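Hey,

The postdoc asked me to send both predictions to you directly instead of through the lab channel. I've kept everything plain text so nothing gets mangled by the mail client. Protein one:
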Amino acid sequence: MLPRARVTRLVLLGAIGLLLGLLLGILGGGGSILTVPALVYGAGIAPKPAIAMSLAVVGVTSAVGSVWQWRRGKLQSRVALLFGLSAMAGALVGARLAVLLRGDVQLLLLAMVMVAAAVGMLRGSGAPAGAEQRLAAPPRTMLLGTTGVVVGIMTGIVGIGGGFLIVPALTLLAGLPMADAVGTSLVIIAMNSAAGFVGTAGHVAVPWQATAVVIVGAIVGIAAGTRIGGRLSATQLQRGFAVFLLGVAAFVVYANRALLTGGPPDGSRATARVAVSATITA
């Protein structure tokens, strides 16, 4: 029989997965950006294992979501293959670069990405109605591939799927309608995250049981979120999430302020996280 503390921890991880899945289902790929902060500050997992877990969780849930989009006819396979292969190459490079960085540095980089994502969401929420249906010029293959590499590098370093960049790139550079861009982005996120995980897992001890629990919760959440999202105002949801994202980014920066002020990292917090990770893995 599992100890009560460990059961409580696994229930917490399942709840985190459920919440992340709901965000993914309601908001699309951009919702995955909270996975690492939730695992680090919600479950007490050290940054590097949390990034590896995030890649696995986001990859699997996006793959499940892409199957649903494929059944709805909202998946453009050729574009997904071009962008996805480029992103995979970038993710492998990013994962190698991540080995050279401390965990708190990766968290600060993630906070910067979160701010950029929030600003993009706030600007996008004010777009005129019908703007999302306008098609761009014929696909710009070179720019699409380059963007894929950049998104992949970011994924490998900070452990996010990059949906908030992939969807606009697909609409602007590949000329996809928004609905197709969202569906296609899930395949790309799955490919991107898989490559990042392969590049990261060899250098980080992954708590497999904890990862599986979060994935199960996330799959349940994304199924529910996909149904709920269709009944809610996308503009208001996006705006509210962007504001929340700015708050989380500010907290991440505050929690790692020692790095900015030149002081030593908080050893007690780091020790606690390592202990929690060891308990979950055991």
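Protein two:
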Amino acid sequence: MPRNRVVSQGQGSNLDQPVVAVPQNRVPKLNSLCSFGMTQLVMTGALRQVFCQHFADPDNLISESLRQRMRREGVWQEGPESGLYIESLGRWRPELTEARPGLVIKSGEWTWLRMGIGDQSGADVITGRRTFGGFWQGSHTIFVLGNEGAETQVLAAEVAKLLLWFGPVIADQLCLQRFLIVSIGELSALAESDENYVVPITVGYIAPEEWFLDSDAPRLKRIVFKASEILD
């Protein structure tokens, strides 16, 4: 399983930005990509996997203040005792983020980008196989939830830097052409609760997709005839 480190050279205060931080990314390539390709659901699951692995160990965290808080109150783990709630929007249970911070992952719109006329990129004149392809341009938004404004912004900064610093690794592991942060939204009160704050972080990416079509019947390779039969 690949490991990737980022060493921060920031010289800020010890609480906000340690002089040396070595968060690690341990994300294996997804087997489902080999057979089915990228989908919105696969992307949601991949991002959740990245977050779960990052926040499962306080030594992975970039922010020293967040590292201390999660050592005190608990890191992410499976089950109701988790110190951080991480889930997709479709499975989000608002009552589970009332007393602890959370990350809610929402899929955005996907747009199809064509490579050529009719999406066709090539053909084999011998076998008759036609190859097609293009790109999906999509986005996901991560809603960072917290009980206090400052706490929410610190957690949002951690998520943003994780996605920014490890963006090339995520793109490689998910076979993406591009993966980048689009925006970090402003802090606001969560509509579903009077005691929670939210900061949205949007990421954009481009996922290639390629497929081919084979004819059911073999191609006509040659025509056999006798000239004498035609002339007669």
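Summary for protein two, as requested: Residues 85 and 96 are 7 Å apart (CA to CA).

Thanks,
C.
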